[in-house]
Amino acid sequence: MNAQGAHGSEGVKEPQQQSQGYDLWQECARQLRLMGFSLRQFLTVPYFIQLLISTVLGSVIIQALAVHAATQSSESHSVDPTLAWTRAGIVGMWSVCIVSAGIINFERFRGTLVYLCSGSISPVRVLAAIVSSASIVGLAALPLSWLIWALVTLNPQVTDFSALWPRYVLGVPLLWLACLSVTFMIAVFFVATPNAIAYEELLLVPVFILSGVLFTTVEAPAWLDAAGVLIPLQAPVHLLLGRTAITTPADALLPVIQTLVVSFIWALCAFLFARRALATARRRGTLGAM
Q1: Quick one: which of 129, 126, 124, 60 has its CA closest to 95?
Q2: Which of 28, 171, 262, 274 is deepest in the core (most CB within 10 A)?
């Protein structure tokens, strides 16, 4: 009897585990469909494309002027053009991802935010899908930066991708993931208050400085570099700018783990804060147009 009972209980657990796995895949597929729908909507609006082009173009021009000035001033202070257009692309991706958090305020202005947060699907998931899909445009920042640099300098051979391709194949998606986790945290501000744009710089500026992207000819102070470990952007920025050498597959393991772990922590904190911010916004009635 005991053996039959144990066998029966195992038979019940197996379908339950299969059902849980099926539900997980269903939820992932639903989230991807939400992102796909939002992305199609955003691609019909030229704002994000214009933002990407203008930001990358402006950053490339500034970097090109810096390279020219360094070359003219002293040969010992020359700047690698590859690092210059890469830094411009990083700034472009960062700008697009951060601005995508502001889409929540736009939805509030249109009067649709309250409806997005009142459906059968978790409002956190809906808002995450909207912000994520808007930030996907930022993935084109680095290829666009290289293209603009090549056209402006008439030098398509500016970067030897045969030697540096692992840096970009690995660094670009990691950078987008890191920017997205910070964007989620910024989005919480926009959920909590319509005046978030007045406060977001308090988080954006320290994060951007700690990432290390602003340090060009000199290295960041040791204490700043140590504090930057808590920032999702640090590992992919160091990877893209060549500060983390990749000679073997094992060399890529540390920046990948660091980015995934820190980004997960930031995304988890954003999820927890978002639930609290939504509850507060509902209580104060600030989800509607102000």
Answers
A1: 60
A2: 171
**pLDDT tens for each residue of 148-181:** 998 888 888 888 888 888 889 999 999 999 999 9
- Residue 185 makes CB contacts below 8 A (sequence gap 6+) with 203, 266, 269, 270, 273
- Quick one: which H or E segment has residue 79? none
- Please write the tens of the pLDDT for every residue from 77-123: 667 888 889 999 999 999 899 888 888 888 888 888 888 888 778 88
Interatomic CA distance for residues 31 and 37, integer angstroms: 10
| CA–CA separation, 215 and 64 (whole Å) | 16
From the list 134, 140, 169, the residue with the least C-alpha distance to 57 is 140
Whether residue 48 contacts residue 134, with contact meaning beta carbons closer than 8 Å, is answered with yes
Residue 124: DSSP 8-state: H
Give, as one character, the DSSP assignment of residue 154. T
Q: Number of helices (H) and strands (E), helices first, in the chain? A: 12, 0
Closest residue by Cα to residue 172 from 142, 193, 201: 142
Residue 145's contacts (CB-CB under 8 Å, 6 or more residues apart) are 56, 59, 60, 85, 86, 88, 89, 92
pTM of the entire predicted model: 0.85
